[in-house]
């Protein structure tokens, strides 16, 4: 195994949001013709940032905001190296969307319709559909690929890596699940006899877990998997692949989001350095993951390939212990700067909480524990509630927890009360709304900002830039870590020098959705 850590890698988050338009104020004053889901999403995007003419926006902060299939607003962060930058970018995207929703509601109010838009950073809707939070990690192609004829130390490496990763991902919700309310019958308890201190019996660890039916799949919607294997590197395809993790719960607490990425980044570093985790490969990862949807403490079976009978908590503790040893050997990597406590302090506390069935020490940092604390407080205020009424209250608490609306959502109030801990300072998040991290995103963000300033039509992808009017040849950006590219910087300077008579607005029809703004 390597004695030094691999070089930096970029990571990103893509989050899909549920949308709901509901009456505001008294029900009697509400109009019956409120926008449906598709109309509500379209109205929100009508209030997108100034300068854009489509619903596919690459932003000056390096991120991407767009309207996805099924009327789901989606925000993808810029490429980040550090965990703190990633969390700040993720929070910045939520704030941008929440502002758009507020402007949409104000627009309806001006027309006499009192309505409130709810953007839900959760994983399921009332019809049982699921949508998710996807993670992307750049990795050397040799880590995931099993090329024909490969021999020596890399023979079968891709298959081994994926077996380790899927076993890790299948049990990861015990640490970073967002929590799922269970109906009284599913909780296996007497709804009339359940005490407030036993509220955890009515919560599972992961809302996403019951919907995942495959370990890997090239399809992100038809067969929901832990890892999407479509070979779409958004980078130099000869050198890099993108590990596209599609099984994460959408989380609200910044320490939960940060811990999820920190653990996964560290595991990828250890795997790339040659550390062996094959003794932690599970015989049936999906069976373990499915059970976590209804497990309050993660003590569900996790049988290894060699026949050892562990629990999901046992497995995550074993991963954590080995990763801690790896960290001791190589030292603190740059991606953990300012977030090292997530691994050295928070993760062990979560394991201890699971072991002792006591979440009090993590009830301001980890989503599934925060929700239980909130619900215990509700039970103390309303001890008379039982059965279906109590189930409905849990669902309402769960929805409010994931609601980005400043009036009805819980997260901003919890932060203000000190009941939800932040990882990032408000200034970091505000900066992330406008400024890209020090990766390829800086080149893209600077180009986009210049085009918006002068009103130029342009086309952008993750790995290319193009000025459309006047037309330029595309500039390729194959290295996600590169912050300097002479051709890209020259094109940006060209944009800044453009005069109005040199540009004309391009008809959006037939652009194939690539344009941002036009």
Overall residue-averaged pLDDT value: 91
β content, as a range? 5-15%
Main structural class: alpha+beta
Record the strand order, biggest sheet. Answer: 3-4-5-1-7-12-11-10
Helix content: 25-40%
In short:
The chain has helices at residues 37-46, 83-110, 141-144, 157-171, 173-176, 184-187, 254-272, 285-292, 312-330, 341-356, 367-381, 387-402, 411-416, 426-432, 440-454, 486-496, and strands at residues 11-16, 18-23, 56-58, 64-68, 72-76, 115-120, 133-140, 180-181, 203-204, 214-217, 225-228, 240-248, 301-303, 309-311, 458-461, 464-467, 475-476.
Q: Describe it for me?
A:
This protein is α+β, with helices and mostly antiparallel strands and 518 residues long. It folds into three domains: 11-120; 154-208 and 252-401, no CATH class; 438-502. It has 16 helices and 17 strands. The chain has helices at 37-46, 83-110, 141-144, 157-171, 173-176, 184-187, 254-272, 285-292, 312-330, 341-356, 367-381, 387-402, 411-416, 426-432, 440-454, 486-496, and strands spanning 11-16, 18-23, 56-58, 64-68, 72-76, 115-120, 133-140, 180-181, 203-204, 214-217, 225-228, 240-248, 301-303, 309-311, 458-461, 464-467, 475-476. Helix 7 crosses helix 9.
What's the topology here?
Blueprint: E1 11-16, E2 18-23, H1 37-46, E3 56-58, E4 64-68, E5 72-76, H2 83-110, E6 115-120, E7 133-140, H3 141-144, H4 157-171, H5 173-176, E8 180-181, H6 184-187, E9 203-204, E10 214-217, E11 225-228, E12 240-248, H7 254-272, H8 285-292, E13 301-303, E14 309-311, H9 312-330, H10 341-356, H11 367-381, H12 387-402, H13 411-416, H14 426-432, H15 440-454, E15 458-461, E16 464-467, E17 475-476, H16 486-496
Parallel strand pairs: 10-11
Antiparallel strand pairs: 1-5, 1-7, 2-6, 3-4, 4-5, 7-12, 8-9, 11-12, 13-14, 15-16, 16-17
Helix pairs in contact: 1-2, 2-7, 2-14, 4-8, 7-9, 7-10, 9-10, 15-16
């Amino acid at each position: 195994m390597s004695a030094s850590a691999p070089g930096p890698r970029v990571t990103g988050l893509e989050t899909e949001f549920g949308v709901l338009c509901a009456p505001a104020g008294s029900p009697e004053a509400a109009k019956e013709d409120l926008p449906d889901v598709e109309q509500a999403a379209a109205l929100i995007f009508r209030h997108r940032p100034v300068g854009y003419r489509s619903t596919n926006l690459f932003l000056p902060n390096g991120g991407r905001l767009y309207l996805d299939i099924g009327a789901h607003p989606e925000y993808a962060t810029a490429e980040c190296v550090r965990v703190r930058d990633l969390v700040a970018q993720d929070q910045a995207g939520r704030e941008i969307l929440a502002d758009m929703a507020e402007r949409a509601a104000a627009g309806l109010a001006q027309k006499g319709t009192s309505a409130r838009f709810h953007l839900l950073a959760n994983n399921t809707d009332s019809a049982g559909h699921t949508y998710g939070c996807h993670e992307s990690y750049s990795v050397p192609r040799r880590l995931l690929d099993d090329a024909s004829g490969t021999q020596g130390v890399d023979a079968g490496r891709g298959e081994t890596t994926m077996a380790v990763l899927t076993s890790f991902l299948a049990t990861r919700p015990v640490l970073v699940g967002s929590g799922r309310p269970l109906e009284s019958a599913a909780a296996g308890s007497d709804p009339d006899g359940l005490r407030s201190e036993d509220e955890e019996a009515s919560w599972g660890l992961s809302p996403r877990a019951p919907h995942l039916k495959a370990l890997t799949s090239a399809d992100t919607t038809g067969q929901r998997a832990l890892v999407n294997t479509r070979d779409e590197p958004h980078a130099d395809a000869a050198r890099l692949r993108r590990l596209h993790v599609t099984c994460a719960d959408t989380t609200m607490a910044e320490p939960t989001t940060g811990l999820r990425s920190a653990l996964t980044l560290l595991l990828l570093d250890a795997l790339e350095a040659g550390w062996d985790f094959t003794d932690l490969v599970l015989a049936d990862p999906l069976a373990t993951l499915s059970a976590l949807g209804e497990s309050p403490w993660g003590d569900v079976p996790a049988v290894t390939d060699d026949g050892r009978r562990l629990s999901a908590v046992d497995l995550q503790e074993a991963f954590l212990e080995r990763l801690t040893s790896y960290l001791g050997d190589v030292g603190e990597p740059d991606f953990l700067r300012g977030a090292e406590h997530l691994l050295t302090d928070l993760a062990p506390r979560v394991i201890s909480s699971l072991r002792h069935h006591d979440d009090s020490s993590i009830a301001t940092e980890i989503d599934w524990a925060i929700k239980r604390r909130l619900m215990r407080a509700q039970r103390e205020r309303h001890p008379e509630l039982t059965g279906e009424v109590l189930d409905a209250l849990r669902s309402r608490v769960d929805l409010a927890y994931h609601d980005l609306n400043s009036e009805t959502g819980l997260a901003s109030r919890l932060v203000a009360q000190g009941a939800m801990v932040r990882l990032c300072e408000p200034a970091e998040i505000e900066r992330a709304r406008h400024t890209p991290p020090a990766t390829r995103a800086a080149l893209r963000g600077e180009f986009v900002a210049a085009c918006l300033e002068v009103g130029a039509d342009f086309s952008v992808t993750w790995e290319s830039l193009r000025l459309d009017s006047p037309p330029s040849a595309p500039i390729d950006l194959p290295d996600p870590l590169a912050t300097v590219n002479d051709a890209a910087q020259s094109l940006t300077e060209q944009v800044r020098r453009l005069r109005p008579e040199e540009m004309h607005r391009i008809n959006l029809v037939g652009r194939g959705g690539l344009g941002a703004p036009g």
